[in-house]
Amino acid sequence: MGNEKILTTLLGRQDLIWSDYVKRETALWIGGSLVAALGGAALYTRIATKRIEREVPVDGAFLDVAGARLHYVDRGTGTPIVLLHGLGAQLRNFSYGVADALASDFRVILVDRPGSGYSVSTGSQPGILGQAAIVAALIEQLELQRPLLVGHSLAGAIALGVATHHPDSISGLALLAPVTQPPQSMPAPLASAIKAARIGRTLFANLLGTPLSRATYGLRWGKIFAPDPVPADFATRGGGALGDRPVSVNAALVELASANEDLIAIVRLYGSLKLSVALLYGREDQVVDPAIDGERAVAAIPGATLEMTDGGHMLPVAHPQASARFIRECAERM
Questions:
Q1: What are the record's GO terms for cellular component (predicted)?
Q2: How far is CA 171 from CA 146, 162, 275, in A?
Q3: Which residues contact 124 (CB under 8 A, 6 or more apart)?
C-alpha cells in the first residue's frame, strides 16, 4: 500500500508539473505571437507611412503659430478665402478642383489642420475649439484682414468655433456639408478617456491605426462619398492616403472625442453671430443630415442661409464646380 501511495503521489505531481509546463509554454507562445504581430504591425505602419508620403508629398509652406506648425498653400490675389478640410482629410481635398476655380479672382489659402496632412500640433492634440484658436492665429499671422472662412464637414464645426469664439478674425462663413450640432455619437466617459489617454492613443495609432485604415480605405471612403463614386486618384491627387498615417488617426480620435462637448459651447453662441453664414449640402448626403445640422443651424443663426445641390457628402472633391460657385457667391456678398 505504501508503494502505491508513493506512486500515486508521484504521478499526481508529474501531472501537475506537465500541466504547469503546458500553461507556461502556451502563455509564452501567445505572448510571443502577440509581440510578433505588434512588431509586424509597427513595421507595416512605418513602411506604409513612408510610401504614402512619397506618393503625396508636401505642397506648400509652413507657418508656426501657438499650438501648431501648419502646412498651407497660398495662391492668387484679391479677397482672401481660407479653406479647411474635413475629418481624416487634407488640403488636397480643395486643390482637387475648388482652388483652381477660385484662385484667378481671389487669394486662396488651403490649410492642413493640426494632425492632418503635414501640419502637426506642438502641444497636446487640439479638439474643435482648440483648432478654432489655431485657425484664428493663422489668419492673424498671415494678415488676411478678415477673410471668408470655408469649412467642410467637421471643419464646418471648427469654422463655426472661429465665428463664435474669435468673431473679429473673419467676415463670413461658407460651409460645405457642415457638422453644426453636437453629434452625441460617443458616450461622454469614452470621449474623456480618449482625450486623456495620450499614450494609449499613440500606441493604437502607431500599431493598429494605419493597418486598419488601409484595410478599410475603400469601404470607408465609399460610404463618405456615397452616392458619388470615389475618384480613382483620390488617394494621391485628393490627399486621401495621408489620412491613414498614425498622426492623422490620432488627430481624428481627438476631434471625434471633443466634438460633442465643444459643439455644445459653440451652439450656445449661434444667436450672437453678426456675420454672414451660408450652408451648402448635397441632397443625398449620407454622413451629415441637412434636415438636422442644416435646418437647426439656420434657425439659430441670424440671417443664415441654406442651399441644396446634387451629390453626397464630399462636395469639394465630387462636385468642385458647385462648391466653387457657392464659395464665390459668398465671397462676392462680403
A1: membrane
A2: 5, 11, 6
A3: 198
In sequence order, the 6+-apart residues with CB closer than 8 A to the CB of 81 are 102, 106, 107, 108, 109, 147, 148, 149, 150, 174, 327, 331
| Residue 169 DSSP code | G
Radius of gyration of the chain (CA): 25
273 by DSSP, 3-state: which?
coil
For residue range 170-217, list pLDDT tens digits in order: 999 999 999 999 997 777 777 787 777 788 888 888 889 999 999 999
Cell of 107: 487669394
Is it true that domain 61-333 has CATH number 3.30.360.10?
no
| C-alpha closest to that of 150 among 104, 184, 106 | 106
Supply 149's cell numbers.
472662412
* pLDDT (tens digit per residue) in 32-81: 555 556 677 788 999 999 999 999 999 999 999 999 999 999 999 999 99
What are the pLDDT digits (tens) for 211-239?
999 999 999 999 999 999 999 999 999 99
Q: For residue 279, which of 115, 163, 152 has the smallest C-alpha distance?
A: 152
Provide the strand spans (E) within the chain: 61-65, 68-75, 80-84, 107-111, 120-121, 148-152, 172-176, 276-282, 305-309
Q: What percent of the chain has pLDDT over 70?
A: 89
Tell me whether the omega of the peptide bond preceding residue 227 falls within 30 degrees of 0, making it cis.
yes
The whole-model pTM stands at 0.88
Amino acid identity of residue 80, one-letter, is: P
Q: What is the pLDDT of residue 187?
A: 76
Amino acid of residue 307:
E
pLDDT tens-digit readout, 240-270: 999 999 999 999 999 999 999 999 999 999 9
**φ and ψ at 299, to 5 degrees?**
-70, -30
Per-residue pLDDT, averaged over 17-41, amounts to 55
Residue 98 burial (C-beta neighbours within 10 Å; 0-12, 13-18, 19+): buried
